[in-house]
Write a structure and sequence with these properties.
By secondary structure, this protein is of the alpha+beta class. It has a domain of 150 residues. It is built from four helices and seven strands. The strands form two sheets. It has a five-stranded antiparallel beta sheet, with no helix packed on it. β2 and β3 form a beta hairpin. The longest helix is centred in the middle third of the chain and has 21 residues. The protein is elongated, with a radius of gyration of 26 Å.
Length: 256
């Protein structure tokens, strides 16, 4: 069996609320690309039933027949359907996700700043109020330099006697699917951020090896498409899509 080279795929999950995530996918492969590129940016995901099956692919007898007889693959790689499986073959696959900056299941919601209260003050108290306001503003800033803060987060001012315990851990356990429905993120032109449409701004940063590999593939979609009878794409034969294609088409759910 030919050993495939590993591809580095980074998936970052940002929690929006209790049942919504945003997924950003970065592909980093120095042998194929001169620099990392984003395949999916802030793609909305929703929480589904944690007991349902994921990462499954069903092959119908028609698909198997088309793959074995029409596309013209050699007999040695034909896919056989189990005699007891009338619906066709079922294959499962899994993936390991990398969440930079924390382990799965951890997430923090930082408190939002409160609006200031309107205070009625007489003229004689204006100067005192300004001085007091400066002290109130500068004190938290001084404490901020001592305690690391989350970049970009907005905090309430610390209150006297308040317990400054770490933010509670948030549980992300569950099955997350595209918020827009099963077909959301699925398109014939590939990655939503970098579709195969021939536009210069969507040209991937290929290395010479990456360009050679790309041209060796014969897909049935995109700018290098060929007739289906000439494709060397294994997917029509019910082979599960591997990385990074499984990410580009969003043809999976994510279990955290």
């Amino acid at each position: 069996m030919k050993k495939e080279r590993l591809l580095h795929v980074i998936e970052e999950f940002h929690r929006v609320n209790h049942d919504r995530l945003e997924l950003t996918v970065t592909i980093d492969d120095p042998k194929m690309y001169t620099k990392p590129w984003i395949a999916m940016n802030k793609f909305p995901m929703k929480l589904e039933d944690p007991h349902r099956d994921i990462m499954e692919m069903y092959c119908s007898p028609f698909e198997l027949e088309r793959y074995n007889n029409v596309i013209g693959n050699p007999a040695s790689v034909k896919i056989a359907m189990h005699p007891n499986d009338r619906l066709g073959r079922r294959r499962t696959m899994s993936a390991k996700y990398e969440q930079p900056g924390g382990s799965p299941g951890e997430n923090c919601f930082w408190p939002q700043s409160r609006t200031g209260r309107k205070l009625a003050m007489t003229r004689s108290l204006v100067a005192s109020a300004v001085a007091l306001a400066l002290v109130s503003v500068l004190s938290p800033l001084a404490r901020t330099q001592e305690v690391p803060r989350q970049p970009g987060a907005v905090y309430d001012f610390d209150r006297k006697g308040e317990n400054l315990a770490p933010a509670p851990k948030r549980d992300l356990t569950g099955v997350w699917e595209p918020a827009g429905g099963p077909s959301a993120g699925v398109q014939a032109t590939g990655a939503g951020q970098m579709p195969s449409d021939g536009k210069p701004e969507h040209e991937l940063p290929f290395t010479p090896l990456g360009r050679e590999t790309f041209m060796a593939h014969k897909p049935t979609f995109g700018v290098t498409q060929v007739p289906s009878a000439l494709t060397n794409d294994p997917m029509p034969g019910c082979n599960p899509q591997g990385f990074p294609r499984v990410v580009l088409h969003n043809f999976r759910t994510s279990r955290i």
